[in-house]
Amino acid sequence: MRRLQADGFSMAKGTRVLPDSPHPATDIVDAPPSRPADSAGYRRLELGVQAFFFIVAIVTALNSLDLGLMVAFGPGPGFFPFYLSIAMGLLVLAWIVQSRRAIRSGAAGDTAIDEAIDYPHVVTVIVSLIVLAALMGVLGYQIAMFLFLYFHLAIRAKRTWYTSLIIALAGSVGVFHVFTDLLSVTLPLSMFGFLNTIGL
C-alpha cells in the first residue's frame, strides 16, 4: 500500500492518522464516500423512462378514442382509459419539467439526478394508472378503483388498514352510487355475471 507522509500526517487510501493522539487507532478520519463523476448515464436512463411512459399514454389515449368516449346512456368503454391516460401523460410531463429544472438549477450537478425525484414512487403511480385503466372494463369501476386506492393508501402511504378501507370504499363504491343514483351517469360494471348480480 502506498503511503504519503508529509508534515507529520500519514495518509492511506482516504484515511488520516493523527500521530500525536494518545489513541491513534480511534482517530482515523474516513474520507467522504465518492460520488459518480458523471451522471449522464442516470439522465439518459431517466429520459428513456419518461419517453416510454409518455408514448404509452399517447397510444392508450388513441386506442380509447376508438372504443368511444360516450354512448347513448353515459360514458363509453373508452371514457375512463382515455382520461386516465391523459392524467398519466400530464404526470410524465410534470416529471420531465421537474427533472429539467433540477439540472438547470444545479441540484443534480455533483450528485446523481435520481436524488431529486422519488423514481420508485413516480413509476409505481404511472404503472398503477395503467393497470387501473386495463382492469376498469374487466372488473368494473368499483373493484378496480377500490384496489387502486387501497394499494396506494395501505401499501404505499402506510395508512392503517381500516383508514385505507374506509377511504377506498368511499372512493369506489361511494363514488359509483353518487354517479349512477344521483347523477344518472353509468360507470363501468364488471364483465363477470356473478359480480353484476351483486351490483359490481
TrEMBL record:
Sequence intervals crossing the membrane: 51-73, 79-97, 122-155, 161-183
UniProt keywords (A-Z) are: Membrane, Transmembrane, Transmembrane helix
Q: Know the name of this protein?
A: Tripartite tricarboxylate transporter TctB family protein
Domain (DUF1468): give its ranges: 51-188
InterPro entries per the UniProt record, alphabetical:
DUF1468
Show the segment(s) annotated as Disordered: 1-35
Keyword set includes Transmembrane helix: yes
